[in-house]
Design goal:
The protein is an alpha/beta fold. 36% of the residues lie in helices and 17% in strands.
Length: 227
C-alpha cells in the first residue's frame, strides 16, 4: 500500500470514528451514563419506596414509584389529598413501559402516540383497576412520556413514577426548589434542582381504539396540530 493510499485509509478510519462518536446512539449512551452517574442515588431511593421532588417537562413534580402503594399514600399525605377519583399521571420512559401496566394498544393508538410522545400530553389508557387501586378509582390511568431526555433516562433507572405537581392541595405549584422545600421540608427524601419551572400542566386526553380523541384538559400544545 502506497503512502497516499495509506493516508486515505487513515483518513477514512478517522471519519468513520468521528461519525460514530457524533451519532445519536452514542450521544444517548453518554446521556444515560451521565444521568446514571448524577442521579443513580435518587433513582434507587424511588425503587426502594422513597419519594422526592424533581423537575418534569412541565412543572416540578413530587414523585414515587407507580408500583409502590406506600409511596403513593405518602405522596397523598404530603399533598393533603387522597381523592383517587382525580387520578395520578404516570411518567414512563417509553411506550414499552405500558406493558408493565398491562396496556395493549391498537395499531391506530400506537400511530397517534408516536406522534404525540415524547411531549406534554397525558393520555388516559385502560388498566386493571384492582391491580392499580392505589393510583386510581377508575379503570384508566393517564400516562406521559416527557420531552426532557434526561428525565426519560432517569425513568429508565427508576421505573415509572406518579408525578403530581409539587404543592399541597389548593396551593400553587412550586416553581423552584426553594418553593418546594418551603412546602415539604424534610418530608421528602431528595430534591433535584432544575431551575425555575413555570410551565403549564400537560394536555389530558383520551384516545379510543379507533383513534378518536377526547380532550379533558387543554395544555400548552393542541394535539390536533400534530396528528
Amino acid at each position: 500500500m502506497g503512502i497516499l493510499s495509506t493516508l486515505q485509509y487513515v483518513l477514512s478510519i478517522e471519519k468513520w470514528i468521528a461519525e460514530i462518536v457524533s451519532s445519536r446512539i452514542v450521544k444517548r449512551i453518554f446521556a444515560l451514563y451521565s444521568v446514571h452517574m448524577k442521579h443513580t442515588k435518587e433513582a434507587d431511593i424511588i425503587q426502594k419506596g422513597g419519594v422526592g421532588i424533581l423537575p418534569t417537562d412541565t412543572l416540578y413534580g413530587i414523585v414515587g414509584s407507580a408500583f409502590n402503594p406506600d409511596a403513593v399514600h405518602r405522596i397523598e399525605t404530603l399533598k393533603g389529598d387522597n381523592d383517587k377519583r382525580k387520578g395520578f399521571i404516570v411518567l414512563i420512559s417509553s411506550i414499552a413501559d405500558l406493558g408493565l401496566f398491562g396496556v395493549q394498544l391498537t395499531t391506530t393508538q400506537k400511530e397517534i402516540k408516536h406522534k404525540l410522545w415524547p411531549g406534554p400530553f397525558s393520555i388516559l389508557l385502560p388498566i386493571d383497576q384492582k391491580r392499580f387501586a392505589h393510583i386510581t378509582h377508575t379503570h384508566s390511568i393517564a400516562f406521559r412520556i416527557p420531552t426532557d431526555t434526561w428525565l426519560r433516562d432517569f425513568l429508565t433507572l427508576s421505573g415509572p413514577v406518579i408525578a403530581p405537581s409539587a404543592n399541597p392541595t389548593a396551593q400553587k405549584p412550586a416553581e423552584s426548589i426553594s418553593e418546594a422545600q418551603a412546602y415539604f421540608g424534610d418530608g421528602v427524601d431528595f430534591y433535584i434542582d432544575g431551575g425555575v419551572r413555570t410551565g403549564k400542566a400537560s394536555t389530558l386526553l383520551e384516545v379510543d381504539a379507533g383513534g378518536n380523541i377526547q380532550i379533558h384538559r387543554m395544555g400548552p400544545v393542541d394535539p390536533y396540530g400534530l396528528i
